[in-house]
């Protein structure tokens, strides 16, 4: 996005001393306030400040580290049920579900994540909730527990809950009507967003996972195999009456795109013809955050992929219709990455 088209919420100017003083993570660091870009992202419960200085590795987030007690639930109207799917396995559905779910919850919405991977669940690990799951959706369907016992609340954000379909290696004949009953029951508890983490493939697990969804997020990497599977999935979604489909391109490597060794985000989007929700760079922090059970978007010092997930979440809830440019004056990785949209 060119500077001239930046929305008014984004400015480049001196960061007032009063602000920098209130950002604890800036204390003791050397920076030139005159070269900092900042954007006050409206729509979070409190104005949120993101800073990027001329050293692109120095991406900061603060002011906003939002106070849980302050949560004010935004209006949404009808609850939204979004399936996160891909066709090809291992492209980042679960990573994206965890980070988008957490970000949307941080925006104040009541979010339920459903791990629809029967027998191979792992969303609980990414959220650090694995030890708190006593019951699963299968226990509900078998009459062993109530829905509220199987919906596990996140410790950090109480408006985020996780429902795992099954224990690991467990088998059960879940049907489309089971999925629809479960999602209706979740909505009746006041949840505004349901994100369904779909298993890989296009067999019965996929069909069950998409059946209650009214919208879909197709995740792909910029690889031809993943794109072909994403295309196939997009066709199946349409055939099943899901027309509101958006694209998330994951594991983008700006250096490889620059060398012409990887398709750009724009190329991928044009090949698939699906509106773009976001692009997430390849980032070793994804692995670190997975191992820690702490989604990227919770990190104090956000990496580029964390910012990319936050922005995708904001676009998903309709709070942002532009791609945030946080590029400093120097041509760092951030700027190069932003240019790949063009
Ligand atoms: N942006 C990224 N940068 C680096 N590693 C990533 C990124 N996104 C995902 N990964 C890694 O890729 C692997 C697969 O991710 P994930 O489990 O989210 O994919 P999935 O589509 O849910 O897989 P499955 O189809 O098996 O359910 C994980 O090891 C994850 O850490
Ligand atoms: Mg997965």
UniProtKB/TrEMBL annotation:
Q: Name one Pfam family in it.
A: CbiA
What's any GO biological process attached to this entry? negative regulation of cell division
Keywords noted in UniProt: ATP-binding, Cell cycle, Cell division, Nucleotide-binding, Septation
GO MF annotation, one:
ATP binding
Concerning SUPFAM superfamilies, the annotation shows: P-loop containing nucleoside triphosphate hydrolases
A cellular component term, taken from the record's GO annotations = cytosol
Location of the CobQ/CobB/MinD/ParA nucleotide binding domain: 82-296
State the NCBIfam families in the record. Answer: minD_bact
Q: Which family does it belong to?
A: Belongs to the ParA family. MinD subfamily.
Q: State the function annotated in the UniProt record.
A: ATPase required for the correct placement of the division site.
Protein name (database record): Putative septum site-determining protein MinD
Query: What is the originating organism of this protein?
Result: Chlamydomonas eustigma
